[in-house]
């Protein structure tokens, strides 16, 4: 058997062992299984929001405003008589669409830039590292406020703004991972074999460095949803015609004493989804890190 074939078989075997180990560690964590199930429910609700919503989220009924929970309105109605459950579900779809698109963009851009800088080294790495430092020097919410004020509201502007704010954290993490791995024996062997740098980076370094970035992406989904809600709460996010949790809380503040559900329901939605993504990210980190003990973990 050729050396190349032997290496390929070893890689497949190592991948299968690692996958079996992840599955075993996941089975040892019933709490994490519950988190994944709840996240699956959240994602399904986001995808099928128009089907799940029992009523039109924009339909107003001024005679039925600020109602309490009932069979017709599971979460009550808001200050314009709109069904809160339908608006929360449609708000979930809006937030998830923006957050997932943003994370995909920042994941691709940050991973590509960070891995290239770490592997290339020299002045290229120094320049990219300084650019990353500049973006990370500003608090993310301050930079987001400045950009959204400059660009204006809207879904596309929101995605563009959040991508600019968040790419640097992905690039920094990936750069550090590549710097730590690029002098490993398997990389030096690949160089000695005459493999091109781009092949070594794509086929050897990135698969071994990508998992911490995946964990960061999972956690950042919740952070992104929280940022979207914060900007909308401040009146700098999405237009009022689009259901969104932050704007729902802002609109319900005036009637909080008489109709607290206007604030409580979207607030609980933000808290729950953000917490689930944070727990999922920590769980992915635990089951993919061989040094993590199963006892005491989620």
UniProtKB/TrEMBL annotation:
Domain ABC transmembrane type-1: 92-281
Keywords associated with the record: Cell membrane, Membrane, Transmembrane, Transmembrane helix, Transport
Location within or outside the cell: Cell membrane
Segments traversing the membrane: 34-53, 96-119, 214-238, 259-280
Primary residence: membrane
Topology within the bilayer: Multi-pass membrane protein
SUPFAM superfamilies given in the database record: MetI-like
UniProt xrefs under PROSITE patterns: ABC_TM1
InterPro entries: BP-dependent_transpt_permease, MetI-like, MetI-like_sf, OppC_N
Family: Belongs to the binding-protein-dependent transport system permease family.
Record protein name field: ABC transporter permease
Provenance organism: Methanocorpusculum petauri
């Amino acid at each position: 058997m050729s050396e190349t074939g032997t290496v390929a078989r070893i890689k497949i075997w190592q991948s299968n062992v690692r996958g079996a180990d992840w599955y075993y560690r996941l089975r040892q964590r019933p709490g994490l299984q519950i988190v994944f199930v709840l996240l699956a429910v959240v994602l399904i609700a986001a995808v099928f929001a128009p089907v799940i919503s029992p009523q039109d989220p924009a339909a107003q009924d001024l005679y039925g405003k600020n109602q309490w929970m009932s069979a017709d309105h599971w979460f009550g109605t808001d200050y314009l008589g709109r069904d809160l459950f339908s608006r929360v579900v449609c708000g979930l779809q809006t937030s998830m669409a923006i957050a997932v698109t943003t994370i995909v963009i920042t994941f691709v851009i940050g991973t590509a830039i960070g891995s290239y800088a770490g592997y290339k080294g020299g002045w290229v790495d120094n320049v990219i590292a300084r650019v990353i430092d500049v973006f990370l020097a500003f608090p993310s919410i301050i930079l987001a406020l400045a950009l959204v004020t400059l660009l204006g509201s809207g879904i596309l502007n929101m995605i563009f703004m959040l991508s600019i704010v968040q790419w640097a954290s992905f690039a920094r993490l990936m750069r550090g991972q590549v710097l730590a791995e690029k002098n490993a024996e398997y990389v030096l062997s690949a160089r000695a074999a005459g493999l091109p740098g781009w092949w070594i980076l794509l086929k050897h370094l990135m698969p071994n460095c990508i998992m911490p970035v995946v964990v960061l992406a999972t956690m950042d989904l919740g952070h992104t949803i929280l940022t979207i809600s914060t900007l909308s709460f401040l009146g700098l996010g999405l237009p009022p015609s689009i259901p969104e949790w932050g704007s729902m809380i802002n609109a319900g503040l005036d009637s909080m004493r008489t109709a607290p559900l206007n604030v409580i329901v979207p607030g609980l939605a933000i808290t729950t989804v953000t917490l689930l993504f944070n727990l999922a990210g920590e769980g992915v980190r635990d089951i993919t890190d061989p040094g993590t003990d199963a006892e005491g973990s989620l």
